[in-house]
Design a protein that fits this description.
It comes from Acanthamoeba castellanii (strain ATCC 30010 / Neff). This protein has about 300 residues and is mainly beta. About 10% of the residues lie in helices and about 30% in strands. The protein has four helices and 19 strands.
Length: about 300
């Protein structure tokens, strides 16, 4: 697959995945665009947790009577959804209806012979079929240490994903035009995807993630799956602009921005990223590498998972 350079569109705030619940606000349509709220992308606004709000192209939305009853999540980077029960007769490339990406929530109806029958948002009798190996039941997610290990393994699965401002997904082919649609993840999109692939919804952006997390003031108490944050200096209050996930030892996984040498999801050491080893870190310490303030936090309450 060919990587394509691009210019950041600062107007793109986020990205909705296929079958993701979206509210369309009445009376906001203009030139084919409409104001929406994304309840699966929490955001902190004026001190309150609310659905992420942004404009979307109305043609990308399908009206539904009610939101899906999600019970499956896609676990492979890209999975094919077929338009008929072709596993009974043999599947052909032409049977592929669409592709869905890791962390996409789906509504499964029944499964047999290695396939899930899923509900599609194109009418009451619209269904698709996806391989069992491509999804996992939301009710059967790992807990405790196993969950932390699973988060680390998922992060490694996503290595090399391209950085894309406002992105929350992998590269996906345009099945009708045989082209590659350029997409990827930004820093919080990566972390959110890792967690969402195990049924956990995090705030959409890095600063709300920081506000939601539990402070862990002792760096030696950090556990895999905990988050590191960067906040620029010179502001009257702390405002986080970058998030990374700790994967144990001296390593982090992050989606790096285009100004970095390695423009992709990557693993870096604490010393490479901050100029310090784990034992040298202090809450609010200024990184030797870029001068930003370093913080960290925990999204999982291990006693409750």
């Amino acid at each position: 697959m060919k990587f394509v350079s691009y210019e950041i569109d600062e107007n793109q705030l986020s990205q909705a995945l296929f079958y993701e619940s979206i509210y369309m606000l009445e009376g906001t349509e203009s030139d084919g665009w409409v104001m929406t709220e994304a309840p699966m992308q929490p955001n902190l606004a004026s001190g309150e947790w609310v659905p992420y709000r942004s404009y979307m192209n109305k043609s990308h939305l399908v009206p539904v009577a009610s939101f899906p009853s999600y019970n499956l999540v896609v676990v492979n980077n890209v999975a094919e959804v077929y338009g008929r029960e072709c596993h009974l007769t043999g599947c052909l490339p032409s049977d592929v209806k669409l592709e869905v990406v890791v962390a996409t929530f789906l509504e499964g109806i029944s499964h047999s012979d290695g396939w899930w029958k899923i509900r599609m948002p194109f009418g009451t009798k619209s269904f698709g079929w996806i391989r069992v190996r491509d999804v996992h039941p939301l009710s059967e997610q790992p807990k405790g240490k196993e969950l932390r290990h699973a988060l680390v393994e998922r992060s490694k699965q996503l290595l090399g994903w391209y950085y894309f401002w406002g992105g929350r997904s992998a590269f996906v082919k345009d099945l009708w035009n045989d082209k590659v649609i350029l997409t990827g993840v930004d820093c919080s999109g990566l972390v959110g995807t890792i967690y969402k692939s195990h049924g956990i919804l995090l705030p959409r952006d890095a600063d709300p993630m920081f506000r939601k997390s539990q402070n862990v003031t002792d760096p030696t108490a950090l556990l895999p799956g905990d988050l590191f944050f960067f906040a620029p200096t010179g502001r009257p209050t702390v405002h986080v602009t970058h998030v990374m996930m700790y994967i144990g030892g001296d390593k982090l996984v992050e989606s790096s921005v285009p100004s970095f040498e390695n423009n992709s999801t990557r693993i870096v050491t604490l010393r490479e990223r901050f100029g310090y080893d784990l034992q040298e870190l202090k809450w609010g310490l200024s990184a030797k590498t870029n001068g930003d303030l370093i913080f960290w936090g925990r999204m999982l309450e291990d006693s409750k998972i």
